[in-house]
Write a structure and sequence with these properties.
This protein is mostly helical. The strands form two sheets. Strands 1-4 form a two-stranded parallel sheet. Strands 2-3 form a two-stranded antiparallel ribbon. Strand 2 and strand 3 form a beta hairpin. The radius of gyration is 14 Å and the shape is globular. It starts with 13 loop residues before the first helix and ends with a helix.
């Protein structure tokens, strides 16, 4: 956290974003869906759907991701396209 109380996130390449989604959120992004991350930013792709991808919240209120989900299949079913 900065002195002003603002959290700044470190820039991640598209490959790093996709790996982060796989490792920490259990969201699988297929190669043919990579173009979504090249066309739009991570926040506009993931934030609107993060509750859909999650399986609930832990005792600290953080979203929990217990099962793998495919980015394209999941985001299509909630209206991204």
């Amino acid at each position: 956290m900065s002195e002003t109380g603002t959290n700044y996130k470190t820039y991640k390449t598209i490959d790093e974003q996709i790996e982060y989604l796989k490792e920490s959120k259990k969201i699988i992004v297929d190669d043919e869906d990579r173009h979504y991350f090249e066309e739009r930013n991570y926040i506009s792709l993931i934030n609107p759907y993060k509750e859909y991808f999650s399986t609930g919240r832990n005792n600290k209120g953080k979203l929990v991701y217990k099962k793998e989900a495919n980015f394209e299949a999941s985001s299509t079913s909630v209206g991204r396209h």
